[in-house]
């Protein structure tokens, strides 16, 4: 599933469409739409895209004179600009200049049109790249939760997912089963820095293309070439040389080094 770096990359690749008017919207698959197709299309027609921004893992189009178009890419969703349509092109936005499509082979993503941001978006925690150190330390210390599960909780901080939770915990030397409230301040501070380091490095590499992820121009990211633990089960740790292990935490495959990462 695309996470903060991938979503940020898509948003940046769509910056040029700010200011364009939506001439028409066609919803071909009711499953990917949160709401009524006819009403959503009618709402969008004639509205202008003010700005495209990221809110955690959501892509938010702020519209003028009002309203929002919200996209969650799910596992295989793509927002593609001026690309050939396929059988998986489930939503088509005809703009004043160009065509933006939402393509999703597995249909786990969602598109929503609304006047106000829905509660499921606004209730999310602070952004993983915007939260300040003091707040982050305080939030971790209050949680008697395994760190991997905590980082996956979007109401704790928004934007992290399976890939970057594994990578940041490794970078910080923290075991995925470590309990937040038991961590010393210095280790929490190191995790805070690791989150910022890993996410910014991944954004610079335009994200991790594990399977279907591409930006709006169809370009793949390259940060998968720099993963240190994610999906490297059995391979030698880049630090100590011991085999990377895999376990389940919060029902998610979790990769770590039992030697370098301490509880």
Give the key terms.
263 residues, alpha+beta, Helicase, Ruva Protein, domain 3, 2 domains, four-stranded antiparallel sheet
Give a topology summary.
Layout (H helix, E strand, L loop, with lengths): L3 H10 L8 E6 L5 E2 L2 H8 L3 E8 L2 E7 L3 E5 L4 E5 L7 E7 L3 E6 L5 E5 L4 H4 L10 H9 L5 H6 L9 H11 L12 H20 L40 E5 L2 E5 L7
Helix pairs in contact: 1-7, 4-7, 6-7
Account of the 3D structure:
The chain is α+β, with helices and mostly antiparallel strands and 263 residues long. The chain has helices at 4-13, 37-44, 119-122, 133-141, 147-152, 162-172, 185-204; strands at residues 22-27, 33-34, 48-55, 58-64, 68-72, 77-81, 89-95, 99-104, 110-114, 245-249, 252-256. It folds into two domains: 4-122, MutM-like, N-terminal (N-terminal domain of MutM-like DNA repair proteins, Alpha-Beta Barrel), CATH 3.20.190; 133-256, Helicase, Ruva Protein, domain 3. It contains seven helices and eleven strands. The strands form three sheets. Strands 2-9-5-4-3 form a five-stranded mixed sheet, covered by helices on one side. It has a four-stranded antiparallel sheet with strand order 1-7-8-6. Strands 10-11 form a two-stranded antiparallel sheet. The longest helix is centred in the last third of the chain and has 20 residues, at 185-204.
